[in-house]
Amino acid sequence: MSEQEKLANRIKTLCSAKDMSYYTLSYRSAVPMTTLMHIIDCSTQNPGIFTICKLCGGLGITLKEFFDSPEFLEIEVGEE
């Protein structure tokens, strides 16, 4: 699973657990809906840590809580 897919899956899981729509997350985090949807559909290669921090704020969690998931235990490093 790619890092983009891991991020997308984590956002989907957290939204589902909090019964929060993507629109609500976008509004609460001040991340444009198009940006959020590009992360969700994996069409963005690097959403950036600042964007992830804003999404965490919208979800009411810390960055540590966001990445505290088994799927982030192993990080794939791409070839350069």
Automatic annotation (TrEMBL):
InterPro entries membership: Lambda_DNA-bd_dom_sf (IPR010982)
For molecular function, the Gene Ontology terms on record are: DNA binding
Could you tell me what this protein is called? XRE family transcriptional regulator
The record lists the organism as Eisenbergiella massiliensis
